[in-house]
Amino acid sequence: MVDGFEAGLRSVLAPDPHRDPVDFLEHNIRSIPYSPLPGPFRITNSPWLAEPLRALADPEVLEIGILGAVQMSKSWVIEAASCIIPVLMPGPTLILREIDRNAEDLLENRLSRLWEACPAVAATIGPDGIPKRGSIQFRGNTCWVLGANNERNLQSRSIRFILGDEVWLWPNGAIKYALARTTAYKWQSKVVLVSQGGHEGDDWSNWYSTTSRSVWTFKCPDCGTRQPWEWTQVIYPDGARTSGGWDLEAVRKGTTYKCKGCETHFKDSNKVRAELNKSGEYVETNPNAPKSRRGFSYNSLCAQWGLTWGDLAVECIEAKRSYEDRADNTARREFVQQRLAENWREEVDEIKMENAVGEYSLGADWDEEGGFVKGKATAGGKLTAADREAADFVRLRFMAVDVQRGGFYWIVRSWNGEGRSRLIGCGYVLTWGELGDLQKKHGVHAANVFVDCGDQKDEVLTACGTNGWVATRGDQRNEFPWKVRLPNGMIKSEMRPYSVPVVEAVGSKRAKVIYFSNLRVKDTLALLIRRGRHTRPVDVPDEYVQQMQSERRTILANGKAIWERAAVHQSKNRSDLELVRKQNHFWDCEVIGLIPALGWKITGAVLIDDAVEAKTEETD
Predict the structure, then answer these.
(1) 514: which of 171, 187, 292, 453 is 20 to 30 A away, CA to CA?
(2) Given pLDDT bands bounded at 50, 70 and 90, which one contains residue 15?
């Protein structure tokens, strides 16, 4: 017993010849079990990680932020630190992901496999081994792997090392609470926060802005100009854009990168990028930052393998096309956040209804109208006469209802399956029965009726359960997690502006409820109107036009974007003016009616019904 204790003590106190973090990892990580690159860790594969990793051992640096592109090894800094700490600098450690479930997945599928594959770390694992969740007891310290969404996880612990991943998804206040856990280790603590780009004005962008904001650069081998990797220097090949659109294969093969100094065009290859990265170093852009708080950023342009400049150019073109063709800004936002590793900046907006006047009347037939055939949404031009006459054929129409205390505003909108829509009818009724009659009159399938349940929820759920309708509710969250089954049977996670349908019950009635992002869905509706794809008939009531222009997109002082009702002055008795908010009920109806169109991607891919789980865990 004494000999074993002495041996253990000597092992902990013995100097390690590989105390430099990069040297330690290259010496001890002989394989990364989940890495697409076989073999041991080599810093030459990701040279932009060397300085952030070495900051782990710098006693002057207490906080490290990494704003990096996806699939560019930024999470490896967290995983690498989890190996270094129990061997070289044992101390209470808290590893955080955005939610508990993802923290459990990180522990089970990455960290535990990595620790067991590294002999130096495996030797420090306690006799109880590695559990599937919670805390792990190493020989010299305890490590917790938890979700930042649960406030209890950020309380009642004194922590020396905070390692946080996907910080842009953390709830407001979580960064502050996490950093407060290190107070007892004030001069010995280390905080590492890692993330892709978030949203300008959110906690992540605000915290990162206080760091040194060092940017990964390279030196041109021809003129010696040191410069950051910037998207403005990506050059598409001549002739790739034709009268018929972009030749994406030509873009993929011919895109180059132009030096900001001598304008040399570098060819698109892994070898060229690797050569440029040999001269790579970080250049600080915020000299006023405290020396204890270092920030490092890099984007996908410096990737040495896999993703090429041509691939990124094609992705950028397709993101812009998605915006122009379907008024979907998601791909553009993700390109900025995930590929360029920049925070997305919101913009103000205002609806101009003159962009959306169609040459048709209320209730008019539309030859382009799409339909549901055998479980799929099909564009009108692809429907045959047999399709339209089939017993199970359902018109591609959605009815949306905004519930008020005294009655219901409603709209029915028809889609062609390729991003264009027409308003078929709109109005105001007093009873649920009248809504049912309108549904049948306009040929809307019960499953395509969507009703707001933000007010009088129990009554709405009862009506939805009785009639087979779907309840909806706007939410302040911008994105919701989904698990989707791919054609090859694999499961992937993705974020969407609406939730997985949740079954809720009132008494004996059960109804599906879909929560959606007020901001993102309203953004998409505004874009569709601006593009002239979301149209209204020439004889629509004036009240509809007025209510459709009732909200404006504004930016708050903290950078957060919101849609809010515009205020107008209304005369009460000739002399007094009362400031009142414009009515927005038809606007709300159009927002609700867009949810199923987004779910079906408008162009035909069935997505609302492909959820693997009935409900996903979300950040409240």
Answers:
(1) 171
(2) low
* Domain-located, residue 43: no
Highest mean pLDDT of the ranges 64-78, 146-160, 312-326, 591-605? 64-78
Host domain of residue 473? 356-540+584-599
Distances (CA, A) of 69 to 5, 56, 108, 195, 202: 45, 21, 24, 8, 18
User: How large is the average pLDDT for residues 360-382?
Assistant: 83
Instruction: Report residue 365's pLDDT band, with 50, 70 and 90 as the boundaries.
Output: confident
CB atoms within 10 A of CB 379: 20
Domain count, the chain: 1
**What global pTM score does this model have?**
0.69
Q: How far apart are alpha carbons 367 and 360 in whole angstroms?
A: 12
Q: Is residue 527 part of a domain?
A: yes
Within a domain: 345: no
Q: Which residues does 555 contact at the CB level (< 8 Å), separation at least 6?
A: 346, 347, 348, 561
Report the pLDDT value the prediction gives residue 7, as an integer from 0 to 100: 56
Q: Residue by residue, what is the 3-state secondary structure of 252-297?
A: HHHCEEECCCCCCEECCCHHHHHHHHCCCEEECCCCCCCCCEEEEE
User: What pLDDT, on a 0 to 100 scale, did the predictor assign at position 212?
Assistant: 97
- Alpha helices (H) in 540-600, listed in sequence order: 542-548, 585-599
Instruction: Decide if 34 is inside a domain.
Output: no
Q: Are 399 and 412 in contact (CB under 8 A)?
A: yes
